Amino acid sequence: MSSRQHTPLVLVSRDRATRRLDPVSLQRGDSSRSYDEAWIRDLVFAHPESVPVQELDPSFGPLIPVCVELDTRKAGFADILFINPLGMPTLVECKLWRNPEARREVVGQILDYARVIREWTFSDLQREAARARKKQGFDLFAHVQEQARLPDLDQAAFVDNVTRNLAQGRVLLLVLGDGIREGVEAIASYIQGTTGLHFTFGLVEMQIFEVGEGQLIVQPRVLTKTLIVNRSVVALAGNDLKLVDEVEAAGPEESRILEPSEREARHKQFWVDLLTTIRLDDAEQPLANPLSQPNIFFRMPTPGMWLTCYFSQKEGGIGIFLGSDRTSAVAMAIGLQLEIDREDITNEIGLPVVWSRDGNGKVRVAASKRYPKLGDPAVREEQLQWFREAINAFVNALRPRIATSLREVATGNASTAN
Predict the structure, then answer these.
(1) Predicted TM-score (pTM) of this structure
(2) Most-buried pick from 82, 242, 255, 264 (CB within 10 A)?
(3) CATH 3.30.1460 occupies which residues in the chain?
């Protein structure tokens, strides 16, 4: 196996003279150098743009520094906590790879952080961030709003997103090291068998080069990224089936190395931009999770119903529709009740809407817009604005009706049982 080390950098002077810059080893025991793990930590915290988050998982960007030395209480101190306007946390552990044992230990350590904070709420995260920053009354939302320069950021949605992402273990776990050696990339295998979390793991080498006169160049490089994919858990509740854990990505793997295609990266960035800028009238509507797929899903008040937003190469357009699980008797019943109010719902949505019902009786409410050049950057903002308006309209028209129908169905079932 090749060591996959950095090639030397070449420094070109104004007079076009060239000089080779070799990477500096931080493991030679040279006490004259003051940079260590704390130095790397402080550098990355001060310059989050040095973390190649776009290569790892763009849905976690932009990285907003929150604190260093976050006390997880049960698993120790995480070196750095970042978060983004979608409420998606990033935990960073900095490590100088002085011995092979450190590799397994640091991966186990950062996995422990993710397991612990899964039990947290937004209030827990804000409290521990305030303790780490030694700032009484620290307001995490206000901090993110200010750092991201998003004065219209929805506070209720942000708080809900943070709590939901923590509960699902949806976090970027990032290990930063200096001069990582051959065999370290095999640490991806250490996380095989981890269950119950949906996280992205990244291994980044921060190679350091000396320029001279005390100046340094720090070059980050992604070595490994691994995504743990959620499983769907279907529980039998009475005569109905309930989807306990939402499907987030296709494929049977529990852990796999990801190398996203250009199209997947484009989809992911589009959904991130949409979810960062959308403003819904219904503050209780959970946002979708940004995926590297041509579709995302907004959950409705009952299991087995959702709004799907999609890009379709086959249809040459974008769209949104109310979907439901045909195995859910409750979702099917609610769909039929919505169909009774189809005229009012259509008028309230205010877009050209198509109603349909398949052979199993599943009702579908859909709207779409054609684009001859689906991925044309010239129409990207127009597509974003269409989704913003369509999602808000569908949520306003459908969510309260679904919630009411769910209560009526539950009441009817209770009456029948009695």
Answers:
(1) 0.62
(2) 82
(3) 261-417
